[in-house]
Design a protein that fits this description.
Elements: E1 5-9, H1 13-24, E2 29-33, H2 39-48, H3 51-54, E3 60-63, E4 74-77, H4 89-110, E5 115-118, H5 123-134, E6 141-143, H6 146-161, E7 168-169, E8 172-173, E9 181-182, E10 188-189, E11 192-193, H7 200-211, H8 213-221, H9 228-242, E12 247-256, E13 262-273, E14 276-280, H10 287-305
Parallel strand pairs: 1-2, 1-4, 2-3, 4-5, 5-6
Antiparallel strand pairs: 7-10, 8-9, 10-11, 12-13, 13-14
Helix pairs in contact: 1-9, 4-5, 6-7, 6-9
The protein binds adenosine-5-diphosphoribose.
């Protein structure tokens, strides 16, 4: 049987690391695409030459031509600009909207059955652009944010309690930004809710650090933003989709009344399988959690209303 095919658009830090994780985990053959000539080809060649040492046979190629991406099972969108000093949020929104619209139109034209995973920021707004540019049903347009935000929360929980990260579980819902909604009540260590293990004050500190997780990395790196954990999060979603595992992971999806919101991409727990998003899992929220979720959804809506028409 032919191996699945995944296209990763954007051969920068997040894209190249995502491609690396996918082939090294043996999940799929990968085509890495970028607008810069030579960049995806060079990184793909370098990654190909590490395969004999690592012992995998997945193929990875680089291209500037979408014809090479035809028939992909999954298309991961990481292309975009990072916010530069002096660039307003609206400037960034306009630039990345144009980039995401263009790459999604070109990629989905030759891979009409693919599942799209959007990574470019501002994430929730870029999901709307991808949905519109592809014309895909909502089941096949997913945003990667919740897995990353939850992984950050799990890291801090594991450090705090001195336990293995594998014994932790966490859910972070809502938009991917300052208003994200970590849910301590649904976060646990070996099944015991976090609220029974730590004081409310300490939990709040871990929640705040999770909320600032991306900014904390940016502040240390000085230039550029996180990519190891984002790439790992995308690879986990790819594994769940290609393996049809029905894993329940927090992803940005278009809500159609679930959680009280409609026609808005927000992070919620979803069941992932070969068809992409196979169900939205509705968990009960307390009044306080619901208010935080609504605030987060409102922030996404405000951004979406600022999207340039296209
Ligand atoms: N088509 C294809 N590739 C493009 C296009 C385009 N129209 N425009 C830009 N790119 C490429 C750039 O050439 C660059 O190689 O996208 C890549 C982006 O890579 P980086 O600048 O290294 O950014 P990265 O850290 O990978 O982040 C990518 O993911 O997490 C988000 O906020 C992050 O939106 C950002 C995205």
């Amino acid at each position: 049987m032919a191996r699945p095919k995944v296209t990763v658009i954007g051969a920068g830090n997040v894209g190249a690391t995502t491609a690396q994780r996918i082939v090294e985990a043996g999940l799929a053959d990968v085509v890495l695409v970028d607008i810069v000539e030579g960049l995806p080809q060079g990184k793909a060649l370098d990654l190909s030459e590490s395969a004999p040492v690592l012992g995998h046979d997945c193929r990875i190629s680089g291209s500037n031509d979408y014809a090479d991406t035809a028939g992909s099972d999954i298309v991961v969108v990481t292309s975009g600009l990072a916010r530069q000093p002096g660039m307003s949020r609206d400037d960034l929104l306009a630039k990345n909207t144009a980039i995401v619209r263009s790459v999604v139109q070109q990629a989905t034209a030759v891979s009409p059955a693919a599942v799209l995973i959007v990574v470019t920021n501002p994430l929730d707004a870029m999901c709307h652009v991808a949905l519109q540019a592809s014309g895909f049903p909502r089941e096949r347009v997913l945003g990667m944010a919740g897995v990353l935000d939850s992984a950050r929360f799990r890291t801090f929980i594991a450090w705090e309690l001195g336990v293995s990260v594998t014994s932790t579980h966490a859910f972070v819902l809502g938009g991917h930004g300052d208003t994200m909604v970590p849910l301590p009540r649904y976060s646990s260590v070996a099944g015991v809710p976090l609220t029974e293990l730590l004081s409310a004050e300490r939990i709040e500190e871990l929640v705040t650090r999770t909320r600032n997780g991306g900014a904390e990395v940016v502040a240390l790196l000085k230039s550029g933003s996180a990519y190891y954990a984002p790439a790992a999060a995308v690879a986990q979603m790819v594994a769940a989709i290609l393996g049809d595992t029905k894993a329940i992971l927090p992803c940005a999806v278009l809500l159609r009344g679930e959680y009280g919101h409609r026609d808005l991409f927000v992070g919620v727990p979803v069941k992932l399988g070969r068809g992409g998003m196979e169900a939205v899992v509705e968990i009960e929220l307390s009044a306080e959690e619901r208010a935080a979720f609504d605030r987060s959804a409102d922030a996404v809506r405000e951004l979406v209303e600022h999207l340039p028409a296209g």
